[in-house]
Amino acid sequence: MAQLSSTLLYIAFVLYLIGTFFFGGTIRDKKDRPQTNRWATIGIVITIVGFLSQVGYFITRWIAAGHAPVSNLFEFTTFFGMMLVGAFIIIYFIYKTSILGVFTLPVALLVIAYASMFPREITPLIPALQSDWLHIHVTTAAAGEAILAISFAAGLIYLIRVVDQSKSSKRTFWLEFVLFCLITTLGFVAVSSAFGLADYEAKFKWVDKNKETQEVVYQMPALVGPHQWTLEKQSADRLKPLVEMPAIINAKKLNTVIWSLFGGAVLYLLLRLLLRKRVAAALQPFVKNVNLDLTDEIGYRAVAIGFPVFTLGALIFAMIWAQIAWTRFWGWDPKEVWALITWLFYAAFLHLRLSRGWHGEKSAWLAVIGFAIIMFNLVAVNLVIAGLHSYAGS
Amino acid sequence: MEQVKCECGHVNPYGTVLCESCGKPLEHTAKPLLDMRYEGSARRSQTYNKTIIDKIWNFFSSVKVGVWLIVITLIASAIGTIFPQKMYLPPNVTPAEYYEDQYGWAGKLYYELGFDNLYGSWWYILLLASIGVSLVICSLDRVVPLYRALKKQGVTRHESFLRRQRLFSATSMEDESFLETVKQRLAKRRYHVREENGNILAEKGRFSRWGPYVNHIGLIIFLIGAMLRFVPGMYVDKVLWIREGETKEIPGTNGQYFLKNEKFVFETYEKGKDNPAFNEAIDRVGSGMVAKTYQTTAVLYKRVGPTVPGEEPKLKKVKEYRIRVNDPLKYDHYALYQVDFKLNELNKMSFELIDKQTETVFGNLSIDLNNPKPSYDLGKGYRVELLSYFPDFYFDDDGNPATKSRVPNNPAFVFKMYTPDKPKGEVSFVAIRQTIEPFGDNKYKMAFAGVETRNVSALTVRRDFTLWILGVGGAIFMIGVIQGMYWNHRRIWLKLVNGEVLLAAHTNKNWFGLKNEVRAIIEGTGLMMPIDQAEEEKKEAQGGKGNGATK
Q1: Global ipTM
Q2: Torsion angle in degrees (nearest 10) through CA of B515, B516, B518, B522
Q3: Where are the transmembrane segments (chain A) (predicted)?
Q4: Of 3.20.20.70, 1.10.10.10, 3.30.160.110, 3.30.9.10, which CATH number belongs to B155-205+488-541?
């Protein structure tokens, strides 16, 4: 069953990839043709089949584990990717815009690829997670975040279309930065998979901040080493760290970040060399036929639909469960606080939409920032600011 | 204050921008399109700005101020997650030292700025309170005039009102047969259609306009509920450490309830015993390393009769329950949660009185470490007195034996052994793995014979009278937010003037949906599809100002 489940996820991944290309194929068509053409129809059918396949992954894994597969970082992030595709499918049927697929599906692909870099085995539930609220809270929260993320895709399309690429400015810089971040995620996936395939391992002994000796295993060559490191015998031939970190910094995670940035930078530079212009400038012709007002409206609509779902899942259900499991509905745990921050941010977004001058481009930038906050909560709060919620990712 | 009479005859309150009834602009505005926010009603904040109360009102009624308050709260909340808050520090550390120790100068600064208790700081609470005030004033400033304006709106609208709507078209029509079709289609799409002198107002989803105010009410109730926690007696939060076999008064219940811990169980996931799907995960961390169950089998008792000091309480069994994480014991507004435990605490220790040389045993005794007896008679003239007992023994600064706590972590005893041949008794100091004799010439000895251990469970006792208020607030918020977000308020006006049909439409959000709907309603009637004048306006403003993409 677990095997079948992995296969289904793999199929879904491949189908999303193919779907992206079909949606990409719609771009070449003239503007005056009807929006739904054959390419888009094939694209959405493939996407739906992929989505169903991933639902299959979800159900079979649930059966195998005996609990909903949303209990560790891999499972949660994968589920988030699935919800993203689901949200896209819904929005597609409302607005029939295939260009949204060209941007949403790759983000979903990145999210799922990122997820699979973490331990993928089925984990048993610790007592705190043994509750039906696990399924209810986590799935609703992920669905809310995914719908909100659609506004990011719409915002990105808006910005690529509207930012003037003929001269460099703050806007071109930050838009490139956003694309660079996406490419860096790809860099992380590429570097992790490469060293994973090569079975790279280097074992260190180091001294933590309480002056106790600890062991750590790096899966990537150590550019930065832990505090007072020594290589273990079996790893003697491995790369010796170039820089040593103080005890309060998690050197292994920093090392991974450096490698990802390095991978991302290499990919980005290669792209720039090939394209001979900004990545956003290269993407601009693909979105030249986009209706800006409609894109803006999709972004706003996604927030309008996603905000109540997010509130319900990430705050209300979260509080109910926290009251049952941790005896208090709110405890200012970092993850809770970042859910509140996300909520406050989108609340501010919705209020700003009431005033003139905040539609269009400004709104698109806000959607990008909102997604950055969601990703921060998903990635950094789990891996950097450890709290009650942090999944034991490494 | 004087009122404003419109040419249609309707009398509007002072400060009204668009006539409540016919929509005619009461003041001259330069912009081609009307500002339809709040229906152009007379909002207090836009009308008065003289007294100090006006100024405060106007400050808090501004959405801009509200957004700033939200953004400042957001940033402050984020700062609070940089380092752990005081409540998450390990026990027995001094925050002043801990922050500097762990995080260097940044930690020190963090502590000195008071960010270690950011969410409980006066200024953070003040921020939340300001948001609350802003919610109340913002809502009142808008909801009252908006309600008036929507209630008084007329079917017959002034021509200038219609022409200056975002969606508008004018069509010359020969006959009026199209009207029936349009009315039917409107009704089919659940529009509420009103007619007056051949003019039509079709409206639906007006209730969605109240969504924001409903959700604000929910938030205010929630904030009030949260504030009630400062009122003493609204909630109880105590911890009860209870050993297996013990019966203890439940703290925070005023001596009303008692709990007996029958048994505490701690289980882990083991390879072979649990779902084989977990094997890989168990292998990675090791069998027996992942917790599976924390469970206290408890019996709840209620005191019967009055509390008499010094007298054993009379208890009546109320309920037996297996308390687990995620499954608290609930009774009479109280809830008992499984939160912590300690395995294998020493409970009883037994010793044998022996002759040091021959190792002959003269009897044995078992000491209850939580409630030791002063003397143990072993019969036949053998007797042991317990002179001193140190449950958590250590040597203090002066080198004297002392105890750190009352918990028997490391028990030590001073025995006096009376035997027929040593009637004056011999003194011996006995601790784990050591025996000290004051004179070093004892004949007898207390030999360690074994221990008995038991588990201790920690339960949190809660009673919270604010929960239902928070629940009500949350529910109202959700209703309001869904009401406002998932429905929209659409209106379509038709007016016949000199053989021309004026068609205008307005929605508070989702113009894309409204356009589709209007298109479907007028299809085949000969009416012209309204033009989106906002888009036209924008195109004109851009007027070929070439930016790479739009060319």
Answers
A1: 0.90
A2: 130
A3: 6-27, 39-64, 76-95, 100-118, 138-160, 172-198, 257-275, 302-325, 337-354, 366-388
A4: 3.30.160.110
